[in-house]
Amino acid sequence: MRSFVSKPIFLVYAYLLIVVLALNSRPATSWLEVENQEDFSYVTGSGNGPENWGNLRPEWAKCKNGTQQSPINLAFSKMQYAPELGDLQMKYTPASGILKNRGHDISLQWAVSGDAGSIQIDDTTYVLDQIHWHSPSEHTVNGRRFALELHMVHKNVQLKKVAVVAVLYSLSIFKDPFLSKLEANIRDISGTGASEVNMGPVDPNDIDMSDRKYYRYLGSLTTPPCDEGVIWTIKRKVMPVRIDQVMLLRRAVHDGNGNNARPLQPLNNREMLYYSALPTSALVDSM
């Protein structure tokens, strides 16, 4: 049977189909994160600094008018003991990674989102997409700020939901073993050199997540567009990192972003939960 679609029209349809498929196959980060560091900065008082993020684009309005923003101060006096949360269900595996200098931070993106494993929270699976570092820490604990904070970003693309697991680090004579494996590659992408390097298999299990205790609250992304509804899990145990490792990360990013911690945001009566297998008295006694 003859086709009633002329060749030029058929070519147009084919082109449109390719475009749609390409858009749908973009990495999961495209619907939440800003990759271009020139779009915003951490320089207080600058036109694109943290206090102005919400004015830079209409879709970033949450950065100024959101009511569940991150980071926050994790104050013991306002925490609720929540044994019902249970141990964090994590299942990670080595997978091919790409180390990137995004200008505002150094990140490790797994080549195929989900290949590196996942976590499960409230019967919902979130696949591990990428990790990145902030220095100094974005979250504080009882007003104390730490030298470094690692964010493990997990996503459920179908639900468009995010769950971040954060690890805090304080200065020590001991190196962080996971960062030690990446140091040479971080130097390769420092400053204005190459922006990324293929790492081959990287194992998320090399990040020490052995401590079962953690804090939990509902917040937001800490970079534009500051979308809310992010489930935050901050591991209680503070890990060691050496000063030269922190400085390596700070010097690698572009000018003005060595300090890449967003200022603390109001709690606005949100719940802050604390999980431990120990009785409630351990909340204060063991911290």
Automatic annotation (TrEMBL):
Function text: Reversible hydration of carbon dioxide.
Domain Alpha-carbonic anhydrase: 38-276
InterPro entries noted in UniProt: Alpha_CA_prokaryot-like (IPR041891), CA_dom (IPR001148), CA_dom_sf (IPR036398), Carbonic_anhydrase_a-class (IPR023561), Carbonic_anhydrase_a-class_CS (IPR018338)
Organism ancestry: Eukaryota, Viridiplantae, Streptophyta, Embryophyta, Tracheophyta
UniProt entry keywords in alphabetical sequence: Lyase, Metal-binding, Signal, Zinc
Stretch forming the signal peptide: 1-30
GO biological process: one-carbon metabolic process
Protein name: Carbonic anhydrase
Enzyme class: lyase
Cofactors that this protein relies on: Zn(2+)
Family: Belongs to the alpha-carbonic anhydrase family.
Pfam families xrefs: Carb_anhydrase
EC number: 4.2.1.1
GO molecular-function term, one example from the UniProt record: zinc ion binding
Domain of life: Eukaryota
UniProt catalytic activity: hydrogencarbonate + H(+) = CO2 + H2O
